[in-house]
User: Fold MFS transporter from Paenibacillus campinasensis.
Amino acid sequence: MNRFAIFLLALGAFVTGTAEFVVSGILELIAEDLDVSIAAAGQLVTFFSLSYAFGALFLVMLTSKFERKRVLLFAMLTFIAGNLIAFFSSYFGLLMFSRIVLAMSGGLYIVIATHYAARLAQPDKRGNAIAIVMTGFSVSLVLGVPFGTLMAAYMDWRYIYLTIAVITLVTFLLLYRFIPKLDGTEPTPWRQQLHLLRSKPLITGLLITVFWILGYTMIFAYIGPFLARLAGFSIEGISTALFVLGVFAFIGARFGGYAVDKWGPVRTIFISLLLHAAALIALSVMQGTSLGVFVILMIWGAAAWTTTPASQFYLISLRPQASETVLSFNTALMNIGMTAGAALGGVVIDNVSVLHLGWLSGMVVLIALATAIYSFTSREKQPCNYDDTLTQIACDK
Assistant:
């Protein structure tokens, strides 16, 4: 496995993840600075997710015939431009535009980077390779988001985006120098892509992603105000909580790759979703208990991000011959789920209380668990293709 190249791809995932998630920690500051409500500021998450879905699905398809390294680097340059627009944002509309640019380029990058990692790895190490890229994404929760939130406590929040732009430029130069070229392929016709969705295991496998990320985002998009109301956390306390959540998200992403290679995606997805739902429901009863909140955040972060590499591996194993197309659908639907999560979270805040987000999110993750069980059951009724290593690993485990 070309580990150094894969780690560079993970570094790119880190900066895209930081740009995506840092808003959640500084939502109140943005709302106050740009004179909009918290619910309106939350739509920065909504529009980001929609645009990310477009980049992950349509831009991947439109650029599929081009050499992948060139497209990857183009996505990074566009991402740098998006961060600079955010840095110069003086009103809400311009910041929203920057989020659209960041999302479309980030969505294109993450799909190609994940596919790149799987192609660079040996067949029996592809689960780990995917996990490394997703670990980079989750490290943004460990370092990027809490550090950005802490920066915002002492300086203008816009400098977060300038910092991301600088790190992305360094990443771009390293990727240009060290990753190998990878040929593109002829774009798959839309009819053929939609034909893939006639598979019940694949459809329900994709719905696992929709529901788990919907439940996750319902509360994470408003994690700042949620923790402030739940346990009276200051912005420094929120930054610390996000750091703890991110550390265990990192652990979960790394463990997810190990678990897939050792026990298979089915068991890994089932157990991680069960723990994820239990953690969110438990979070609702931890009001005023800081220590209890931190313990639940640890379980939540680890469980949620263990699911990610396992789910991606599971989906690729269902259609290994169309892995980039499947990953495109998965990333697009993931961000549609995030869009719905941010929107539903805003509805909850406007009509009841932010404190209801915990148990409601847990219920949605339980729907993801039920969907996963149905997908696994449907797959067992279909013959396994032992001509393909990925499918064989998934079937055997």
Q: What stands out?
A: The two ends are 22 Å apart (CA to CA). The domain at 3-396 is CATH 1.20.1250.20 (Growth Hormone; Chain: A;). Residues 252 and 339 are 23 Å apart (CA to CA).
